[in-house]
Backbone:
């Protein structure tokens, strides 16, 4: 597993740094026009609580297609990394947003949690075997982290936050240091910076909640 | 006169203080120690696989357990494994001394699943095997271990399976669910039948490191007591249902920091 630093984390310091970074990144992102139709990865969906916590104003709304073309994929395949697709990742996230009490969601997330923990150092290789395109691998991985954070909010289970934090330590997948550049580099909204922003925001929010509780 | 119980131990290294204590306590109880299987320390594959799992934490573990050893423990209000050894007058510096003093067979192996280990267990025919660390155990070793392999897990089962289960209950604010469980090992991770549970509530101003230190002598006593109680027919196996608990993984440093602060700020 790639690690950024061996220095101990100071939660209070980290949350202050995050707050400034979040505001500055959101300023950069909100200067661009947001097109709901192009947010096929639901990058900014279900962020009301995190936006309110960091006083970022109203989050862009989102709509869920009731007639999803990929609907009920979860019922057709066995939960496993082998059967995991972008559509399944998205369907799992949408199930969580729609608060559908579908036991399949829990079974899938538990399987994926175990898989990512046991394969953390080989995750890129495993994704490479499945998806050939580098950009798609990154979007896939970022969606996966988003799913874990969403599952943490749904269940309150810190194991999902824990694994999401470990995946954020994978330099090839996520870097909040590179995020300002990635936002500038893309003329319009792109899922890679948007998903990274979502991860940064939700992780900071989740850690703040845990710190307050502690 | 009843035949003494034949017990075999599995050890993570020849310097393991817990294995030394457990072996000596079992020997003093009158049990026959049929052998000790010890994992060889200098094995690049072992280092790589453990580094992959533990990261930089492995280096701290090596420093404490192999280099500092007893000197890593300073005088504390609570009992450490060093105090326990002094109190019980256990003065071995490594497991090889059991061979020198009592002619107990000590076998060194690459992993505890080697064919030599499985064959060694078959030849020894132990009543029970006591695991004091050394990695995952495969079916062949499990099947050659009499009643089975006993492990002392640093968490309350079935709720807290896996790793860092001292810290996880703290993070989840379940301080009354900290403790140790003696259970039989099976193919799963901490999913085997339970024999005994011992809760260890944290004391005021106790840090996670101090709490972990306090666990070690308790684990030794609990493992020996439970093993003998079971062999004497005073304990029954309690099976676990898979859905009763969760498997936890190594805690990320950011959450570890929250758990540490949370325990101290109670």
Residues:
């Amino acid at each position: 597993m790639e690690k950024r630093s061996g220095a101990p984390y100071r939660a209070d310091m980290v949350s202050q740094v995050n707050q400034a970074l979040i505001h500055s990144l959101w300023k950069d992102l909100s200067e661009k026009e947001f097109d709901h139709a192009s947010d096929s990865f639901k990058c900014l969906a279900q962020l009301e609580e995190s936006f309110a916590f960091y006083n970022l104003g109203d989050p862009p709304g989102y709509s869920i297609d009731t007639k999803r073309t990929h609907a009920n994929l979860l019922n057709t395949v066995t939960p496993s990394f082998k059967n995991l697709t972008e559509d399944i990742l998205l369907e799992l996230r949408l199930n969580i947003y729609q608060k559908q009490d579908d036991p399949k969601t829990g079974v899938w997330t538990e399987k994926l949690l175990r898989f990512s923990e046991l394969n953390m150092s080989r995750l890129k290789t495993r994704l490479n075997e499945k998806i050939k395109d580098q950009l798609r691998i990154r979007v896939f991985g970022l969606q996966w982290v988003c799913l874990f954070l969403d599952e943490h909010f749904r269940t309150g289970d810190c194991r999902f936050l824990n694994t999401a934090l470990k995946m954020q330590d994978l330099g090839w997948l996520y870097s909040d240091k590179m995020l300002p550049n990635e936002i500038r580099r893309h003329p319009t909204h792109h899922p890679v910076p948007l998903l990274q922003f979502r991860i940064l925001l939700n992780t900071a929010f989740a850690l703040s909640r845990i710190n307050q509780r502690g | 006169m009843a035949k003494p119980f034949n017990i075999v131990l599995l050890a993570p290294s020849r310097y393991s203080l817990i294995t030394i204590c457990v072996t000596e306590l079992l020997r003093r109880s009158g049990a026959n120690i049929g052998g000790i299987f010890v994992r060889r320390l200098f094995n690049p594959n072992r280092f790589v696989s453990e580094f992959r799992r533990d990261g930089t934490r492995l280096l701290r573990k090596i420093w404490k357990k192999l280099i500092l050893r007893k000197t890593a423990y300073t005088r504390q209000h609570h009992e450490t494994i060093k105090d326990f050894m002094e109190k019980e007058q256990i003065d071995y510096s490594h497991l090889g001394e059991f061979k020198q003093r009592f002619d107990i067979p000590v076998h060194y192996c690459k992993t505890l699943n080697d064919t030599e280990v499985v064959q060694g267990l078959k030849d020894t025919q132990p009543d029970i095997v006591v695991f004091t660390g050394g990695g995952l155990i495969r079916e062949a070793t499990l099947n050659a271990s009499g009643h089975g392999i006993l492990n002392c897990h640093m968490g309350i089962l079935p709720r807290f399976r896996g790793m860092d289960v001292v810290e996880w209950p703290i993070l989840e604010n379940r301080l009354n669910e900290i403790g140790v469980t003696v259970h039989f090992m099976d193919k799963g991770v901490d999913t085997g039948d339970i024999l005994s549970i011992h809760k260890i509530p944290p004391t005021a101003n106790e840090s996670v490191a101090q709490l972990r230190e306090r666990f070690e002598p308790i684990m030794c006593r609990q493992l020996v007591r439970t093993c003998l109680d079971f062999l004497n027919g005073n304990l029954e196996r309690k099976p676990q249902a898979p859905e009763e608990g969760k498997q936890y993984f190594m805690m990320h440093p950011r959450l570890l920091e929250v758990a540490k602060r949370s325990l101290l700020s109670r």
Q: What stands out?
A: The first strand of chain B starts at residue 6 and ends at 11. Strands of chain B lie at 6-11, 32-39, 106-109, 128-131, 149-153, 160-162, 179-184, 194-199, 246-248.
